[in-house]
Amino acid sequence: MIVASRPGQCVLGAAALGIATMPLWASAWHMQLVSAALVAALFALSLQVLVGATGLVSLAQAGFFGLGAYTVHLLGSPPVWITLPAAMLAAGVAALLIGPLALRTKGFFFLMTTLAFGQMLFFAFHDTPLGGGTDGLFIVRPSLGFTVSRAGRPAVFLLLNLGVLAIVYGGLCWLMSTMLGHALQGIRSNENRMAALGHNVQRLKLIAFVLAGALAGLAGHMSALTDAFVSPDLLGWHRSAEALLMILLGGIGALHGPILGAFALVAIQEAGSLLSDRPRLVEGVVFLAAVLFLRQGIAGWRLPWRTRP
Prior knowledge:
By secondary structure, this protein is mostly helical. It has 13 helices and two strands; from the N terminus they run ααααααβααααβααα. The protein has helices spanning 6-20, 22-25, 28-54, 61-75, 80-102, 107-125, 153-176, 179-189, 191-196, 201-227, 237-250, 257-275, 279-293, and strands spanning 137-138, 229-230. Strands 1-2 form a two-stranded antiparallel ribbon.
């Protein structure tokens, strides 16, 4: 998987710095919007571990995302250093239970199997006392260890989401440079060759599946922490499809692609709401244009006059 080049890393760093300074000049609404984009980027990045590295497309990712969010609700209001690992553990264990069964299939059947498991998680929380009904419910935020005023919440959660995304992205950059990361990427290139070289392909796929699930649980935790709200909609299969759209828009072959795709999607959705009373139609046109003209996503876009090395 391609990691951003040195200039690309500088651009990402500058963008992160710009976001970090938003509390000094941006409104609360803009900070909340960027916080939502950061959580979406973290969620899409979790799916990229499967799609971009191993070539597995899962529609169960939203189930792990929602499970991480509901873990915050079910635990009550302990400190965040308890709820955060608990959310990752709950989603990771669920992925560990689902993975061996789903990974017995391949291609379209793997996609449909993960969809079935994702819907099972969805209906476990949908219209049940466990999930607070179809409308969801507001929750008590976990303690951060310090007092946050109502006016200061947008800035605090913006910085928290930015920090978590930066740590996860940096960790995945390191992982993809290790022997394990190279082995995971080798599965996407040629699964049979990796098996012939002595690698346990099923075990590697399971590692990727569990890691992706745990990171999705982390994203769900940050969503619940930021919004103080959970609903069964968080587990809907359309959220997995939305994460896949972010990856396609940003670039499947690039680790930073989901981050670009998430911010692009949020921008498209907001622009569609402002420009038309049918924002979904605007989104559809933009996605169609992206598929036709940006085959490698935003991360693979080159200036028309730029020559290839």
